[in-house]
Design goal:
Elements lengths: L11 E2 L2 H8 L8 E5 L5 H8 L4 E5 L3 H11 L4 E3 L16 E6 L5 H10 L7 E9 H7 L10 H6 L3 E9 L4 E2 L6 E8 L9 H11 L8 H8 L3 H7 L12 H15 L1
Helix pairs in contact: 1-2, 7-10
Length: about 260
Amino acid sequence: MIKAKKSLGQNFLVDKNILDKISNIIDIKDKLILEIGPGTGNLTSYILDKKPKQIFVVEKDNELAIQLKNKFNNQLIIINDDILKIDETALFNEKVIVFGNLPYNISTEILSKWIINLKNNFWFDCLILMFQKEVADRIIAEFNSSNYGRLSIMSNWKLNIKKIFDIKPEAFSPKPKVYSSLLYFYPKKNFIKINNPKNLEKVTRIFFNQRRKMIKKPYNQLFNGDQRIVNKLKINLNLRPQNLNLDTYYKLACEYENLRC
């Protein structure tokens, strides 16, 4: 019997009703699938029942990787590695559907990695990912709300995001102390072009460094008090960081890039 490792943020989803719901969110027959953190293969079994074209799974835990190989024989392509070290774009020649019960301790790091490395040609059709509920709430937060911040802005740049449902702790083994949420991400057809995503990272980091204070100070730090950008984007410098909508931050990142050209 494999025990979950706290160091790897492992909580195995065992509720059959939830597993069935997740596998039925979209039609995956004859589609290429990537599953992140399959653990003991509970969701993997449900995915296989839907007759996908092929399943790749990324499992960092050596013991679990061996167990998956024994359990599924040659039905999976098992990658025994750290998802943060993998270049997904080099794995596939076609778009994939991604499922993931992401480890709580690195879930935002995984999502941020994918967003920063996203090109205009997406390597996936959609992402169906599970997060700790409070993290999911930050991802889908709208401006003028307390949860709105850097993660909201980065996540919504190139992706549409929908919340599917919340999941109780009792659905997992071992049982976590918090609720989880399942989110569905799919590419936007139109988004504001930012040449280097790290510029968006920098703008949001400086603006949200003191989220309770007015944005005048971080604006001046980035743009040296340039009033032309304030007028162009119709920004009120007496507002706080959470009061600026998504597009304003994307436009600010573009203006920051222009200053550096």
